[in-house]
Prior knowledge:
The protein has a seven-stranded parallel beta sheet. The protein has twelve helices and twelve strands. The longest helix has 13 residues, at 130-142. Helix content is 34%, strand content 19%. It has helices at 24-34, 42-50, 63-67, 69-74, 84-91, 111-115, 130-142, 160-166, 185-190, 207-210, 231-236, 254-266, and strands at 4-6, 36-40, 55-60, 79-81, 99-104, 120-124, 147-150, 175-177, 194-198, 205-206, 218-222, 239-242. By secondary structure, it is α/β, with parallel strands linked by helices. Residues 121-263 form the tRNA/rRNA methyltransferase SpoU type domain.
Amino acid sequence: xxxxxxxxxxxxxxxxxxxxxxxxxxxxxxxxxxxxxxxxxxxxxxxxxxxxxxxxxxxxxxxxxxxxxxxxxxxxxxxxxxxxxxxxxxxxxxxxxxxxxxxxxxxxxxxxxxxxxxxxxxxxxxxxxxxxxxxxxxxxxxxxxxxxxxxxxxxxxxxxxxxxxxxxxxxxxxxxxxxxxxxxxxxxxxxxxxxxxxxxxxxxxxxxxxxxxxxxxxxxxxxxxxxxxxxxxxxxxxxxxxxxxxxxxxxxxxxxxxxxxxxxxxxxxxxx
Length: 272
C-alpha cells in the first residue's frame, strides 16, 4: 500500500512531477526526458495501471482517497493529499477530476514488432495537435485498428491532453515511431501492407470503391489538420483514397475523417 502523505506547501519538491502542467512546451520536453506522463481522472488512472504502466505517485484531493482506495492498496507509490486550491497552485489549473497520477513511461517498441501481428494500421504524419492525437487513438481502439505508427514530428500520445481526450485508449493500441520519414514507410510495405493515403484530392479513389476491408493488410495514412499529407508522403503511398463529400464541404476534421476511414477499413472484418 502506498503511503498517504498530506502536503500543504506548493513548493514541496515531492510534487515536482505535477508542476506547471499547463506549460505545454515545458511538459513536452520534460516528461519524455524524465520518463513520466500524467494520467488525469479515475478512469484514466485505472486504465493506465491495467495496461501495465508503473505508478510513481498520486496527487489527490481528500474526497478521492476513498474512491481510489483499491488503487492505493495495490500500489507502493506515495499518495500526496492536497487541498484543491493547492493543487491548482502546483499544476496551474483547476483539477476538475480531483485525481492525478504520475506514471512511468515504457520504452517504445520497434515498428516492425508492432506490425508483425497487425492487419489494420494507422500511420500519422505531422499530427501535432494533442486533441487530434487523442481523438484518433480513441477511434482506432473503438473501431478495431491494430496499431499506430507516428512520424517523428507527431505529438506525444502520452501527453496529458492526448490521454484525457482518448479516455485512456492510448493505452489500448500499440504504437511506435518511425525514425526516418517517409523512408521508413518501406518497412510497412515490405511486410505486405497496402499503404492508403487519405486525402481530399479529387484524383483519389473513393474509399468504398477501393474496398479496403477486403485487403489482407492495410496501413491508412493520415496527415495534419489543414495541411494534410505532404507531397513526399503521398508519393510514397500505394493508393490515394478519399471520403466523398456533399453540400460543398471539402473535407472533415482529421479526427472525424479518421473515424469514418477506420470503419471503412475494418467493416466486416472478423474480430479476433
